[in-house]
Amino acid sequence: MSDRFNEYATYIIKSINLRQNQSVEIVTPSECVYFAERLLKELLSYTHDIYLTITNSKREDNPHLDDSFYDRMIEKEFVRITITSPFTLSRDNYYLDLQSAKLKDYFHKNISQRTMVAIPNNKWASNLGITLGELLDKIVNIALRENKLSKYIDKLYDLDIRYLHIKTGIGTDLLIETIKGFKFNTGILKTKKGIEFKANIPSLEIYTSPSKYGVIGKIVGSKPLYIKDRLIGTFQLEFNEGKVIKSIGLDSVLRLDDSMYYLGEIGLAEYDDEVFCSTIIDENLSTHIALGNSYKFGIPSKYHDDLNYSEYHVDLPIGTSDMLIEAKDKEGNIITIFKDGNFIFE
User: Fold this and answer.
1) The pTM is what?
2) What is the DSSP string of 76-136?
3) Are 233 and 314 in contact (CB under 8 A)?
4) Are residue 107 and residue 189 in the same domain, yes or no?
5) Could you give the angle at the alpha carbon of 63 between the alpha carbons of 61 and 67, nearest 5°?
6) What tens digit of pLDDT does each residue of 114-123 get?
7) Are 44 and 50 in contact (CB under 8 A)?
8) pLDDT at position 269
9) pLDDT at 99 over 90
10) Is residue 187 a contact partner of residue 208, using CB atoms and an 8 Å limit?
């Protein structure tokens, strides 16, 4: 298992394209400190300016977090590696302002690299009925997969898609209006200095943001959703003129704020029937939508007002083994791009 940890740590550092002497913050729940410390050791060959922030610990466990810590880190254009892992202790540290408006602006502008990475913990593995080592193997194998859809982004752009129609045998029947001139994106982003980095690990999807008011129909969840320390086994939503008009299982998500009644993303990914109860993995093994905040990447600036904006972004897996996705172009032609859960347009 040690070799796989080292392999994964090396891959993470390569994926963020770390430069010599860049400042780094590793953000992790206490259950994953064991991996964060291994990652820190690997990082030492690049930099010694490394900080480990434990999100569900006592304040004295994070002595570096004084009031001006993030001001100093932003000035140094620091890199953040965020470890995500379900079934961990609740974050009850009100003093940890890890998502302040200033930090959000810093990361949204891609001033420096960042990534969010899935790391196993014992409770998560136990809930899946496997060992920590077995879960690690599964996660690393998925993380190392090639994003096969990324090479078709230009061909999809040339289609000039105006609508996507998603259907599944369990009840999803959703029509999504796209933004004129949009282009699908991958999880590979670029800083203002031109450094490419992978924002999520794993990253097997291509995604875009839909027109806020151009969504109609129904979705039925295809995989459990773990959010805010709660596992939601089944969920459904109905939309009209972009807005959720009926919810089963997701009322707590919708109550976060009014913008959660609208979509912020449609992500396409080939279907894998394995369930991890982890958003960052399950969204990459299933086509999904997201309630809340939109991404501007690939959207012409003159259409940014047509997007949904929110403090939140919640991904919902809806892909199945029989999923069909049809695209309608500007001429009204219908092109099948997904069939039986997999991408078929070439």
Assistant:
1) 0.93
2) TT-EEEEEE-SSPPP---TT--TT-HHHHHHHHTTSS-EEEEE---HHHHHHHTS-HHHHH
3) no
4) no
5) 130
6) 999 999 999 9
7) yes
8) 97
9) no
10) no
Instruction: Give, for 43, the enclosing helix (H) or strand (E).
Output: helix 33-43
CA distances 192 to 110, 189, 196, 202, 203, Å, are 6, 10, 10, 23, 21
pLDDT at 94: 39
Query: Could you give the angle at the alpha carbon of 8 between the alpha carbons of 194 and 50, nearest 5°?
Result: 60
Residue 235 CA, chain-centre distance (Å), reads: 19
Same domain, 201 and 251: yes
- 82 close to 27: Cβ distance less than 8 angstroms: yes
Query: In which band, very low, low, confident or very high, does the pLDDT at 154 lie, cut at 50, 70 and 90?
Result: very high
- Please say which residue of 143, 158, 181 terminates a domain: 143
Q: In the numeric block, which tokens belong to residue 193?
A: 């200095």
Same domain, 210 and 114: no
Question: Which residue range(s) make up the domain with 154?
Answer: 148-343
Query: Is the torsion defined by CA of 41, 135, 91, 61 positive or negative?
Result: negative
Q: How confident is the model at residue 28 (pLDDT cuts 50, 70, 90)?
A: very high
Q: Based on the fold, state whether residues 282 and 211 are members of the same structural domain.
A: yes
The model's confidence at residue 134, banded by pLDDT at 50, 70 and 90, is very high
Phi and psi at residue 155, to the nearest 5°: -65, -40
CA distance 269 to 287: 5
Residues paired with 263 in a beta bridge: 291
Nearest CA among 65, 78, 11 for reference residue 38: 11
Asked if 322 and 181 sit in the same domain, the reply is: yes
Residue 48: both structure tokens together: 């010694």
My answer on whether 104 and 170 are in the same domain is no
For residue 186 the two structure tokens come to: 């991958």
CB 89: neighbour CB atoms within 10 A? Answer: 14
CATH of the domain at 99: 3.40.1830.10
